[in-house]
């Protein structure tokens, strides 16, 4: 991983841009699939939706995708992860770190998901020192992709995440008959070494800029105010239970919004015992603050028993709590929660804009 | 509990599909009988003993005789486990609970209907005896069964997942059944099944029962939004929850 080193490295944005034929890009990906020991994954079409999945061939890439079901977070922080295994021999317990921390080559990551991973890096590497995450992240390569389609649920432009100039090893933009690739890291640059590329011309760079500018105007949903206002706005409305209850009445409390969120990282740990009783493993799996058990503790106390409290917590967390701790608003505007909410009450732009209007009407 | 507890299986009103799931453990059955001694299991062996510590009970309670027999098992056993949805919360048998009992028996037994002596309602075993652990599902999940047995032997407090099926659908990246214009009970049904039905291209019927606190009003609104009228909505709820749902409502009112 060279991601954050990039920002102040000499590999500047314009200098780092190369142009290559689409067939050359396919050669690159097929070469990685054949030769790199790591898995190569990318967006593919699967029964009615797009998902990041292991690639058999570059031809399977669905680069036209708007939004995948889960974000590539699942490769860095898997849904289920064995943390340790234990075994008892002669009355003594022995424990072993049980997790598989191999890196992954992720192809076709949109800017909002790159932004989400940068945020997760801050939390897991810079702050919590989460070893399985750090190892996977450092061994992984991110090949970003400028969005070609915009999901109707997305508002990434409002969150400053429709485009990006950091967080990737390579960033690919389709300019029609060829790709312009921005080099974001030394490793990214190495990938291009054996390919037929040339330095992007001024007009090609201009075309990338034009596509990005155009993209920012293509979002159907938007936040009516700058996201920097969110922390203050939310703090003001913490006690406005009438507001939170009006949403919670329609909320199924099913946790889908948490599960599909690219920046949610809460987990639970459980012990799975083998029948014999002498061995087993501990596994962590994703948890979500909308779920009833999330804030329940020993002796049956539950700190957020009411749906309204949990509903509020989710929005507070994204726009205020995480900001207080890490300096980031932890919503990138991907729109997954909106897409997957069966009751249609998860859309952050609905909730945040309503709050804004209530304050500024 | 003893080092290798004696266990027995009993069937009440049900299809015996949950015990079949236990038999279907196949080679893992050998691991199982290393740690427990099976003393009664009509579906798998001919021997029987009334000396057991753990009783697994499949099926719901529908006759006075069922109630008596169940009370006897409870007296013999240290631990009673409800095996499958019928035993756990009435299950599919409770479809008939809101129908006229005479009509039901006539429809099923025709001219012999008056030979049938049964309670007007199918009920879970917890309505008759105290239950120590529950393994819901229609049928049960074999892995969950093994985990519950492991827990019981090791003295671990039994727990049930209390998240809805939606969580597992998201983790598995199943396409949402609602996105396929189907009705799905996943948002209010207890997970733990790996969302297999949705993963296989169909939808959730609610076989593991409702989560502890289902957002029923919000969910009913979703079904209305998808074009179901009141009767159709009740039909959805009635397939597995004919006992559980009214019982929940009564308990809520009492609080």
From TrEMBL, chain B:
Q: Which domain of life is it from?
A: Archaea
Which InterPro entries does the entry link to?
A: Hydrogenase_assoc-protein (IPR051349), NADH_UbQ_OxRdtase-like_20kDa (IPR006137), NiFe_Hase_small_N_sf (IPR037024)
Q: Which Pfam family, an example, fits this chain?
A: Oxidored_q6
Asked if the Swiss-Prot or TrEMBL record annotates the protein with the keyword Oxidoreductase, the reply is yes
Recite the UniProt keywords alphabetically.
Oxidoreductase
Taking every annotated instance into account, which residue ranges of this chain make up the domain NADH:ubiquinone oxidoreductase-like 20kDa subunit? 15-150
Q: Does the keyword Oxidoreductase apply?
A: yes
GO MF assignments: iron-sulfur cluster binding; oxidoreductase activity
Q: What is this protein called?
A: NADH:ubiquinone oxidoreductase
UniProt organism field: Halapricum hydrolyticum
